[in-house]
Every structure is written in structure tokens, then in C-alpha cells.
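User: Could you check the structure of this?
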Amino acid sequence: MDITTPISDEAVSSLNVGDTITITGYILCGRDAVLPKIVKLIEEDRVDELGIELKGNVIFHTAVSPAGVGPTSSNKLEIESSIEPLSKAGVKLHLGKGRLSEKTIAALDKYNSLYAVIPPVTALLEDKTIERRVAAFPELGMEALHILKVDKYPAIIAAAHGRSIYD
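Assistant: Sure, the predicted C-alpha cells are below.
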């Protein structure tokens, strides 16, 4: 199924564990260093200061380097603990790799969000990345919050509606 950002609640509801998707549009990229900063801004009701919209957005758990992008493990503490508050703030899809906890899968379900895995195929993803820019926290370098414009990024739904592909 082809998904275009921003992602609607209806699109999320129509997807199930094991479905393959492609993502086109603008997505956010962040990992260990930046996601806790975003969560803090959400908690302080200051996320609007970033000048980005979380509702309907995608967060790809990756750093952005001149060599390209590739998924990092989503079950790292700093990343996995960001999934619930980001989903509550409106993020509809989290991209990365690895198994998530049952608690996180339940939180995704509660906020009608999904988790998808992307195989570590940096060269393929670089070919499908049209544009990139730093959105916030430039001092973090590759781990800053980035916005990418992508065309048909491939992914597999790994957690949806309280279920996980790893079960």
C-alpha cells in the first residue's frame, strides 16, 4: 500500500501487521540524542517552537549523514520511551528496526499509531531520498532532528492494533 504524509487515522486503521507499505512525502528523522528533547518540548507544551507538525507525521529512527540513512534499533531506551508521547502528540508511524515491548505496542494501539521496520538498506533509501534539511537541534550534527522528502520508502508494518510481527 502506498502511504503519503501526513498520514490519516483512516490509513492507520486500514493497515495490519505484516502489510508492506511505501511512504512518500516529508518525514522526520531522529534517534537517541534528539527524541528525548522533542518529548521534553511536548511535556512542556512547547513543541510548536520547532515549527513542525507532529500530527500525521512519521519519525524514522535514524541519523542523517552524507552517506545516507539507515534504521537504528527502536528498542533503545531513549528511542522506545519516546514512542508513546510522540504517538499521543499525533505521530502516526514510527520507523526503525527491532522488537518493541508489549507496553509500547499497547501505547501505539491506544493512540492509533503504527510501528514499521525498514531493512538496513542504506543505498536503497538514499536513492529514494529527494531532499533533506535540519529541522531542529543542529548542534547534534547527524543526530539532529532532520526532515526528509522521500519517494516510496519501503517498510513492513511490525506493530499495529495491539499486535506485533515478533509475536
